[in-house]
Amino acid sequence: MREAREHGEGAAARRLGDPWRKLHDTGRGYLSVYFSDPLARWPVREITRPADNKSDPNIETGTYGLFSTCEPSMRNRIVHDGAATIFFLTTRKPHQGRVISGYYHVGWYTEGTQGAVNRDYALAADRMHFIDPIAVEDLAEPLAGICSAQFRTMKPIDAETVAALRSACDERPERTADYLGEVTRIETFARARSGYAYPSWGREAGFSWSDAHDYYQTDAELSRVPNSSKSRKWRCRECGYVIKSGALLKKCPLCKQMATLTPAEEGT
Fold first, then answer.
1. To bridge 102 with a disulfide, which of 57, 130, 149, 251 should be the other Cys (CB 3.0-4.6 Å)?
2. Of the spans 63-72, 110-119, 257-266, which averages the highest pLDDT?
3. What's the CA gap between 67 and 95, in Å, rounded?
4. How many CB atoms lie within 10 A of CB 63?
5. Is residue 178 left, alpha or beta, with left meaning phi > 0 and alpha meaning psi from -120 to 50?
6. Rounded CA separation 47/197 (Å)
């Protein structure tokens, strides 16, 4: 399968083989709020977020939750409920309110690095459509109310809402190629300043399908791991390295081993 970086089309993952499985679509979906990068001209994820570089929505591969541990409960419910459409919302500037930047239609899923025991399912789109952002307040009711209601990270929506929001997005021209170009530009900027595209990951390059095989579930004896750390510190059980990160990383930035980080206690 070609990468989205290479062909620049809205569809990112039409046919995937093992270990990916087809997701049954029940018509339902989710609203998903993400941090967008203040340095970006298009509302891509916050790649430069200090000590918490973001990898989702990963439009380069059309995936969500493959490289990150973000929103495990949402990913788990999408798999089990067939809520196949994710609409992405963000706030571009303070006090300007939320906008919708686009959506995924999820066609595929597999267990991620942390496995089903940690509700770690990776999702892949069979279609994605990113657009000139729509201000939530400009949507007709009841959509404006649904999208502007007080929720912090995600919200399930019914099939009627999914259909209406998808129609509103599909009326707008496809801008996915512009978003992809902006991801590359921001990664280049970050690398010029720090030597890494993702400093908190210890990662010099961006993401592509060639990285995916490292992030699939391989350890059948995985234990439960908290998705957050009160100290914002994580210890690798393989090399003992302690890192600071706002979120659990799937790969240790030092020894590059998978699923080895656990919360470190204060003072360590």
1. 130
2. 63-72
3. 31
4. 31
5. alpha
6. 8
| Pairing status of strand 233-236 against strand 154-157 | unpaired
Alpha helices by DSSP H, listed for 72-200, are 72-81, 143-148, 159-170, 176-194
Q: Which of 205, 190, 169 is nearest to 5 (CA)?
A: 205
Q: List pLDDT tens digits, range 182-231.
A: 999 999 999 999 999 999 999 999 999 999 999 998 776 778 888 888 88
From the list 111, 59, 67, 113, the residue with the least C-alpha distance to 86 is 59
Which residue has tokens 């952002």? 133
Top CATH class of 4-192 equals alpha beta
Of 203, 173, 222, 216, the residue nearest 63 (C-alpha): 216
User: What length does the chain have?
Assistant: 268
Residue 19 has pLDDT above 70, yes or no: yes
CA distance 237 to 223: 13
What is the predicted pLDDT for the residue at 5? 42
- Domains of the chain, by residue range, sit at 4-192
pLDDT band at 111 (very low <50, low <70, confident <90, very high): very high
Residue 137, helix vs strand vs coil: helix
The two tokens of residue 17 are 């083989």
- CB count, 10 Å around CB of 27? 14
Model confidence pLDDT, tens digit, residues 69-97: 999 999 999 999 999 999 999 998 766 78
